[in-house]
Amino acid sequence: MPSIVVDNISFSYGRGDVLSSLSFRAEGSCHISILGSNGSGKSTLVRLIDGLLPLRRGDILVNGISVKDEKSIREIRESIAIIFQDPDSQFVSPVLEEDTAFGPENYEMENIDQIVSRSLSAVSLSDFRKRVPQTLSGGEKERAQIAGALAVNPDIVLLDESFSMLDDDGRKEMDALVGDIWKERLIISITHSADQAINSDRVILLSGGKLIADGSPREVLCSVSLLRKADVRPPFAVRVRESLKERGISIPPVLTTGELKEVLWNFR
Ligand SMILES: Nc1ncnc2c1ncn2[C@@H]1O[C@H](COP(=O)(O)OP(=O)(O)OP(=O)(O)O)[C@@H](O)[C@H]1O
Ligand SMILES: [Mg+2]
């Protein structure tokens, strides 16, 4: 069962802590959103989990192995795929199929050609094998990133604001694809958008490098005061409920736009 245990970590790049006394556990096949405003320490946390930054205070265990154990860092990296925000900066080859093969080659996997075919097919890019990655559209580039991650068969997938360059529909499509492909894995999505965190199983809220909430989307995202503290805009439905309240109209708590529609439809 994939797992990440973050045990009382603090981290500083030199001046002041950007993460302080942070702890949480994530286990099994679930989808967790880590939500926080700009500069709250989200990407720093991703880099610490993948051993890209040196951790001195506290510990992080990935599948039971400490990121501080230098001998095992390769094993940790092989179990994690990270999809970053800017796809252009992540392509390593001028031909898509070579790019998709990069991870499997690096990890000396067998049947690479088959893995590449399967991965590109899973994201509907089979016809694009010979394309120069930079010539793909934004959405196709994101699919290519997903194929590259899929090719290394990770236990854990970290998405750092991955699809934030796409429009709403494009992003929803990618989120659905990710959920579908890695149903059985541990997915951690980093985001500053409360609306994007609605469909995850659990939401961890960061503010100034501290964990200020950890609960279900409904517990965390309907709490306007918590979100305000973290400088995160509440989800659309929650904002509508708040502005109705300011006008003296009271409706029951809602999280999704579907629930909002339902409540307004029955309102009298
Ligand atoms: N290499 C670095 N050197 C010094 N400070 C850094 C470095 N990287 C990040 N920081 C600082 O650490 C803090 C947290 O940055 P981080 O990138 O983790 O935030 P974030 O939550 O991912 O923000 P965003 O939503 O803007 O991506 C910020 O104040 C940032 O300026
Ligand atoms: Mg970031």
Overview of the structural elements:
- There is one protein chain.
- It is built from eleven helices and ten strands.
- The radius of gyration is 20 Å and the shape is globular.
- It is 37% helix and 23% strand.
- The relative contact order is 0.15.
- With 268 residues, the protein is of the alpha/beta class.
- The model has no long low-confidence stretch (mean pLDDT 95).
- It has a single domain (3-234), classed as Rossmann fold (3-Layer(aba) Sandwich), CATH 3.40.50.
- The chain has a six-stranded mixed β-sheet, sandwiched between helices. Strands 2-1-4-5 form a four-stranded antiparallel β-sheet, with helices on one face.
- Helix 3 (96-106) packs across helix 4 (112-122) and helix 3 (96-106) packs parallel to helix 5.
- Magnesium ion (MG) is lined by residues 42-43, 160-161.
- pLDDT averaged residue by residue: 95
Instruction: Bin the helical content.
Output: 25-40%
Name the quaternary structure.
single chain
Count of alpha and pi helical runs: 11
Ranges with pLDDT <50 over ≥5 residues? none
Total count of strands: 10
Determine Rg (CA atoms, Å): 20 Å
CA-based shape: globular
Bound molecules: adenosine-5'-triphosphate, magnesium ion
Strand-residue fraction? 15-25%
Secondary structure class reads alpha/beta
Terminal CA distance = 49 Å
CATH class: Alpha Beta
Main beta sheet: 6 strands, mixed
- CATH architectural type: 3-Layer(aba) Sandwich
- Give the CATH superfamily: P-loop containing nucleotide triphosphate hydrolases
**Can you tell me the CATH topology?**
Rossmann fold
Number of domains: 1
